[in-house]
Every structure is written in C-alpha cells, then in structure tokens.
Amino acid sequence: MARKAIALLSGGLDSRLAVKMMLDQGIDLEAVNFITVFCTCTAKSSCKSEARKAAAEFNIPLKVLNATDEILEAVRNPKHGYGRGLNPCLDCRISMFRRAERYMRETGADFIVTGEVLGERPMSQRPDAIGLIEREAGLEGLVVRPLSAHLFQPSIPEREGWVDREAMMAMRGRSRKPQIQLAAELGINDYPCPAGGCLLTQRDFSRRLELLLKEDAHPPVAEIKSLRLGRLFFSSTGHRIIIPRNEEETRSLELLAQPGDTLMSAEDHTGPTTIIKGNDIIRRTLEEAAALTARYGQGRDEESVKIGYSIGGDGETSDRFRMEASPAEGRRLASELKRL
Fold first, then answer.
1. Which of 8, 77, 203, 213 is the least buried, fewest Cβ under 10 Å from its Cβ?
2. Residue 318, pLDDT score
C-alpha cells in the first residue's frame, strides 16, 4: 500500500521539485499552503495562486491555511527571537509545522515533505534550527527533505523504506543552479522567479508594525495591510498621516480605511486621498494633514488649495468639511515632521 504524505507547497521551485520527486516514488501526496498578510507577493502572482497552479499541474489536492494569527502571536511573543527585522522565523516555522502535523494526523498521512535546502535560509534552515523546529512541532524523524536528504540523518520514512533515500539529493546553500538543473531533468519548466518573501524582514515595515502594535496589540488585518502603503508621517500630535504615492495606493488605502479614520483630499485638483489614523484629532493635526495633502497633489504650485475631509472611514456617507491649505507649508512639514 502506498504511503501518504503531506507536502508543504509554497508554489516555488524547491517545493515543486520535492513534490515531483515524491510522486515519482509513488507516494500519495496532499499539499498544504500557508498564507499570511506578511507575504510580499502581489495579488497577480501570490503564493496561494502559485501553489494552486502547482497542485493542479501535479494533480494533487491542496489545502490553503491562513497563518496570520499565529504569526502575529509570534511577533508579539517571539520565543526564539527576531531576525534583522521583526521576523520571528523560527517561531513562524514551528507554528506552520505544528499545523501541518495536525493536518497529517487528521488525514491519516504518514509523514511530511518539504522543499527545504540546507543553508538556503540563514535562520530556519541551519542544522540546529531544523532540529529545533522538528522537535517543537512534534515531527522528529517525520520530515522528508528530498533536495537535501543526504545531508541529514535518515528520517523514519527513509529508514523504514517508505521512500528511496538513494533517489534523493544533497543540495546545500543559496545557489539555485542545482535546482534549475534538476527541474530540467524532471521536466519542470514553468515555475516562478524567487521574488517572494516576508514583509517582517523589511526594516521599514517592521518599524511601522512595531508602532502599530504599541497602539493596538490585536489590530485588524486591514490595518496591517495598510502599513506597506504610502508615505507615513507623524503629526506634531503623534497621529499617523498616510499619503499615497500613486493612484493604485490611493484606491487600496481607501478600501482599507477603518471606522474612525479621517479621509482627506483636494477639492479642485487631482491628488492623493490622505488617511489620518486615530481618534481625538484636533484642528492642528487636520491643518498639518491638509498642507501635506496639498503639497503632494496637482495643486502643489498654487498659493492655496481647498481641501475636503470626512471623519468615519466612509467618504461617501460621512459629513464632509473643508479648509484651505498651503502647499508651501506642506513642503516645510514634509521635511520637519517625523516620517517612516
């Protein structure tokens, strides 16, 4: 009887290769894909869409699991520390492996398959880190890594003969040349470039998230999504002022606006929809945000620009107020206010 395994399928080349190698050995596979709000992929080429594409190509079932809550908890309380940003890579990996272990038990699978390559990721793919992750996830000896199998002690599936260890590889390091060569040999020709990643490794995003978590330890997902968008200023009263850089960011920030946000835009000129975050916004904050809005709009060369604003995160139904703002004052504030 064929053994069953759960493959961690990101949709990238490594996980595609691991899946193909196991299918070639006759293993019955089901895949899981983890998504979070911190993925740097675009909507057009997301990790989820690549995983679905790969699962369809290999004709295997795919379960997509949202891991945002677990990662946020790891960010708030990282047992194993951070990387260069606010990225709790080991805790993140442990939480994902724990969910994979539960799903393995639920589905009656025998082991886990990953596309991990020893040394490819500095925090989570070191020998000591890999051992730690397995232990804390309750998966000791139950993870098969076809691309680097010969660099580890044989797993239970290898020792028991469920999989053929001799048909696996000994890849190491960050070069993708061995994977690309293997892909050609296995007939895998359609795979994404390695452009994905995690926002938590980016210092600017991490600083923004750290400040948000000080305001609200359990922020809405929409608030986290907005952190990757726009120019972020802090008013002299400490309120966050977000000014989109282009039309796409303007549309996105409008959609992500929360109840209580103040939305502001020029009345007679094309320009950004500024978002002011927080309650108890006083006149001084409104004036600073209005000046910045005028500075970054098409009326930036005017002496004065008429600015409209509404409070409540809904510019269509909320009452709209107006004030005059100076683009020149906005230029001064842009250079003087704290900015991230």
1. 77
2. 62
Q: How many residues does the chain have?
A: 340
What is the token pair recorded at 244? Answer: 């989109």
The ranges of the chain with pLDDT < 70 are 1, 41-47, 193-196, 313-318
Q: What is the DSSP string of 62-102?
A: EEEEE-HHHHHHHHHS-TT---SSS--HHHHHHHHHHHHHH
Q: Name the token pair of 133.
A: 């992750």
Which residues are bridge partners to 325 per DSSP?
Answer: 305
Task: Tell me which residue of 30, 60, 66, 28 sits closest to 47, measured CA to CA.
Answer: 66
Contact in structure between 253 and 275 (CB atoms under 8 Å): yes
Per-residue confidence (pLDDT) for residue 49, from 0 to 100: 85
Domain with CATH 3.40.50.620 in the chain: 4-186
Report field, pTM of the whole predicted structure over 0.90: no
Rounded CA gap, 168 and 150, in Å? 7
Q: Report the SS3 class of residue 145.
A: coil
pLDDT digits (tens, 9 = 90+) for 78-100: 999 998 889 999 999 999 999 99
φ, ψ dihedrals at 333, nearest 5° = -65, -35
Q: What share of the chain is helix, strand, coil (3-state, %, to 5)?
A: 40, 15, 40
Task: Look at residue 1 in the predicted model and tell me its pLDDT.
Answer: 67
Amino acid 187: pLDDT: 93
Sequence-distant (≥ 6) Cβ neighbours of residue 335 within 8 angstroms: none
Q: What's the CA gap between 102 and 43, in Å, rounded?
A: 29
Alpha helices, DSSP H only, in the chain?
13-24, 47-58, 68-76, 89-107, 127-137, 156-159, 177-186, 203-215, 221-226, 247-256, 283-295, 327-336
Beta carbons within 10 angstroms of residue 52's beta carbon: 17
For 171-182, b/e burial (b = at least 16 CB within 10 A) is bbeeebebbeeb
Q: What is the DSSP letter of 155?
A: P
Task: Report the CATH architecture of 4-186.
Answer: 3-Layer(aba) Sandwich (3.40)
